[in-house]
Design goal:
The structure holds two protein chains of two kinds. Chain A is mainly alpha-helical. Chain A is built from twelve helices and four strands. Chain A has two domains: about 30 residues, no CATH class; about 160 residues, Nitrile hydratase alpha /Thiocyanate hydrolase gamma (Nitrile Hydratase, Chain A), CATH 3.90.330.10. Chain A is about 40% helix and about 10% strand. Chain A has a two-stranded parallel sheet. Chain A has a two-stranded parallel ribbon with strand order 2-3. In chain A, helix 4 crosses helix 5 and helix 9 crosses helix 10. The relative contact order of chain A is 0.13. Chain B has three helices and five strands, in the order αββαβαββ. Classes of the chains: A mainly alpha, B alpha+beta.
């Protein structure tokens, strides 16, 4: 009989005394296994090749939030462009080099799957924040891959229910008279937030402005600040109000 | 048995170079609701698949705009794209979604989308 995995593990543990080697992979989720199975079937069936898959993966990982930051900076500087961004986000994206419709690999919107793109403009009395409670829909063509926390059930469940608590965990506390508007992107629209241009940026160029519009600002969990050009590390807290089923 | 042929690439053929949901434009007929209309989210059965969140069922909100036409998720999950519907973006007061939402923040709102079948006049 072939050695089982646990036999091999025991032997390894024995060989190294009390210090068994750490596993190479901590955990493979069911979804990763499902993805591998579907991918391998698709390759066997000839729908695409392993080389295609590698190329697409590489393409998807080359995307980032810079075009969206530039879109925000442009909208701050040019009221006409802002009008276009608010009415036709897909068309406005072309100005920052993002073609939602014809982007590879499919030519109809992938890797974001759908291409109805809305830019949500904040005002001093209105703050937007984006979530997808059903999965993790995200405007990938213009923002790249979503951060890990955006995909967690914790963020997705709690943001719609306790937005003020969740935002304060990101260090964003807003006065009660500011309307928080959560955009739950669970159908075919993808959203980005156009924050209010912060004070202290008068006379800045588009390049300088784009630098302070971080990914977190574009999701809506942070506000742009002169001098801050990267996302802050998010502290991890246990849920204040743990989920009770059957509401 | 002679199975009718189903073209698995029909969606790709239709959407390439046009975009989804753009490729369903003009297929849903006249829109039933318009911006400003008060609507209630219906509590329809969803045995197999839906994208209509339970937390919105029964809540009353205001249509902010008719956004696009598309087959509803409940059909599209089964590759049925024959009956596109209008989709609407609807804004709710947080208090109307979560009865115990703190009164300190009466202005807070949430906006999300529904296909027409999920909405009724309120």
């Amino acid at each position: 009989m072939a050695k089982t995995h646990s036999d091999t593990k025991k032997e390894a543990a024995h060989k190294h005394g009390d210090h068994p080697a750490a596993p190479m992979v901590e955990e493979v989720s069911d979804f990763e296994i499902l993805e591998m199975a579907v991918r391998e079937l698709a390759i066997e069936k000839g729908l695409f090749t392993a080389e295609d898959h590698r190329r697409w993966t590489e393409y998807v990982h080359s995307l980032g939030p810079l075009p969206a930051a530039r879109l925000a900076a442009k909208a701050w500087l040019d009221p006409e462009f802002k009008k276009l961004a608010l009415t036709d986000g897909v068309k406005a994206s072309l100005a920052v080099g993002v073609d939602w419709i014809n982007s590879p690999p499919t030519g109809f919107g992938t890797p974001s799957d759908y291409c109805n793109f809305r830019v949500l403009a904040d005002t001093p009395k209105l703050k937007h924040v984006v979530v997808c409670t059903l999965c993790s829909c995200y405007p990938r063509p213009i923002l790249g891959q979503s951060p890990e926390w955006y995909r967690t059930p914790n963020y997705r469940r709690r943001l719609v229910r306790w937005p003020r608590q969740v935002l304060s965990e990101f260090g964003l506390q807003l006065p009660p008279d500011v309307e928080i508007r959560i955009a739950d992107s669970n159908q075919k629209t993808r959203y980005m937030v156009l924050p209010v241009r912060p004070a202290g940026t008068e006379g800045w160029t588009e390049d300088e402005l784009a630098e302070i519009v971080t990914r977190d600002c574009l999701i809506g969990v942070a506000l742009p600040k002169p001098g801050v050009t990267s996302n802050t590390k998010r502290p991890i807290h246990p849920a204040v109000h743990p989920l009770h089923h059957g509401h | 048995m002679n199975k009718p042929h189903h073209d698995r690439t029909h969606h790709a053929k239709k959407a390439t170079g046009i975009g989804d949901p753009q490729c369903f434009k003009g297929e849903a007929g006249p829109a039933k609701f318009k911006a400003g209309d008060r609507v209630r989210v219906r509590d329809l059965p969803d045995i197999f698949y839906t994208r209509c969140q339970v937390y919105t069922r029964g809540a009353v909100g205001t249509v902010t705009m008719a956004v696009y036409e598309s087959p509803p998720a409940e059909d599209e999950a089964w590759d049925n794209t024959e009956h596109p519907e209008w989709f609407y973006s609807v804004a709710f007061r947080q208090k109307d979604l979560w009865p115990d939402y703190p009164d300190t923040y009466p202005n807070d709102t949430l906006e999300t989308e529904f296909s027409e079948r999920w909405l009724e006049k309120a």
